[in-house]
Amino acid sequence: MNNKKGKIIDKLIPAAVILLVLIVWQTACSLKWVPGYMLPSPINVVKAFVTDFHELMINSKATLYEAVLGLTIGVLMGFFCAAIMDVLPSVKSALYPILVLTQTIPPVAIAPLLILWFKYGIAPKVILVVLVSFFPMAVGLLEGFQSVDSDMIKLMKSMKANKWQIFWNVKFPNALGAFFSGLKIAVAYSVVGAVIAEWLGGTEGLGVYMTRVKKSYQFDRMFAVIFFVSAISLILMEFVKLLQHYSMPWEHVKDK
Amino acid sequence: MSEILKAENISKSFSDKDVLKNITLTLNEGELVCLLGVSGVGKTTLFNVLSGLTKPDSGSVMLKNKDNDEWEDVTGKNGYLSYMLQKDLLLPNKYVIDNVALPLTLHKMSKKEAREEAMSHFKRFGLEGCEKKYPAQLSGGMRQRAALLRTYLCKNKVALLDEPFSALDTITRSSMQEWYLDVMEEIKLSTIFITHDIDEAILISDRIYIMKGNPAVLSDEIKINEKKPRTQDFTLTNEFLEYKKTIKEKLG
């Protein structure tokens, strides 16, 4: 009972804070503490969202397509890379530093290069998404593969299991938690990555739309699209959580 | 009783530290032999050698072949002896039944057949009704029984058990020992059992090897003549105390 109450309060607190921020924001705009062209009021943002709804939907389709395609490739590559690094330590010592190095390069910096190399189509966007989603997957999975209890491996070997059997029966399930943690991050990165790539050129997508409204100083529409992008990321992350819940039923069994 | 396993002159050292020195032991068919020694003396290392996980520096492990009764050299070879490690090591993501059937599915038996075979032992191992539960839903004693059943289903003639009851509380532990004595009567598995608990060793073994020293040697061998099946009542008899006294002197 108490626990239930606590849970409701836990959810109420952040909702109250968000509401408070919205109220302060709206008051600041209504009382003209901040000029309207610099900071649109929340109500205006909602209005802009409603008017632009159709256009946002069309553009989000392109962005989502790039994000999901890039994410899929990134996840698969991350998986294979992690698996190879796990099986062959020499590959790990060769590859790992390069992996870390690539992560220090900001995606905004390589996006123009990718456009230069791969032109204005979908390719540079997908490639950027692959680059940003690959790393959290590879690192997370490798960590998961290698954190297996060494006694478990001993036991499997004593049962004469081969490397492949040890991988599927022990290492892979052990890495699932890390896989989903990585996937949550990768999902958020992939949407942002796609939007960044679209800023720099292209014909459709939320990033293209964003640059267009920015150029015409329509800040209410700008805010609407920003919120929309973060909403998409949040929904995708929730979807990953749901997927995790159903693919790892043993994590939430109770009765003894 | 005929010999089924013999280890001869086994020595092992790790980076200049000698752990095992000239260890020779034998195991007869259907016999339960205990390796008794203080923690850290090298009992687990010896098991790793016997099971083939670790290669000894010298010496050999010989196992009598199931079919033709000839001695086979299994030194450094995995899969000839069933090994139960100290932890239960059940896979958290698999149902109890699939955990237990793992040695069968690893050897290419279909999941359905493996489950059926595993299922046929659930009653004897006191695991009825747990088939479709996850290990996290089981008590410590039940997890240990599941791990024992998995070890049994490895279907080797010899089982190595590394302190299988040491993580349990005293009460669960003595009921597990009694249950184990019963099961052993039925399944007649030749077993080497590690323990650092003198009472446990006397209660369940036919023979006890005392392991001590640095590097470790098998200093003494004690035969427990009390007939089986035994119960916990044996621990209250004078003979039991005599054995205990002898062992304490030899360990000390």
Q: What would the principal axes of the Cα set say about the shape of chain B?
A: globular
pLDDT < 50 runs, ≥5 residues of chain B = none
Distance between the termini of chain A: 21 Å
Q: How far apart are the termini of chain B?
A: 32 Å
Which structural traits does this protein have?
heterodimer; A: 256 residues; mainly alpha; globular; B: 252 residues; alpha/beta; 8 helices; 10 strands
Can I get a quick summary?
The complex is a heterodimer of chains A (256) and B (252). With 256 residues, chain A is mostly helical.
Report on the structure:
The complex is a heterodimer of chains A (256) and B (252). By secondary structure, chain A is mainly alpha-helical. Chain A has nine helices and no strands. Chain A has two domains: 1-34; 40-252, Orthogonal Bundle (MetI-like fold), CATH 1.10.3720.10. In chain A, helix 2 runs antiparallel to helix 7. The longest helix of chain A is centred in the N-terminal third of the chain and has 46 residues, at 42-87. Chain A is globular and about 75 Å long. The two termini of chain A are 21 Å apart. Chain B folds into two domains: 3-81 and 159-251, Rossmann fold; 90-155. Chain B has eight helices and ten strands. In chain B, the strands form two sheets. In chain B, strands 6-7-8-3-9-10 form a six-stranded mixed sheet, with helices on both faces. In chain B, strands 2-1-4-5 form a four-stranded antiparallel sheet, covered by helices on one side. In chain B, strand 4 and strand 5 form a beta hairpin. In chain B, 40% of the residues are buried. At the A-B interface, helix 6 and helix 7 of A face helix 3 of B.
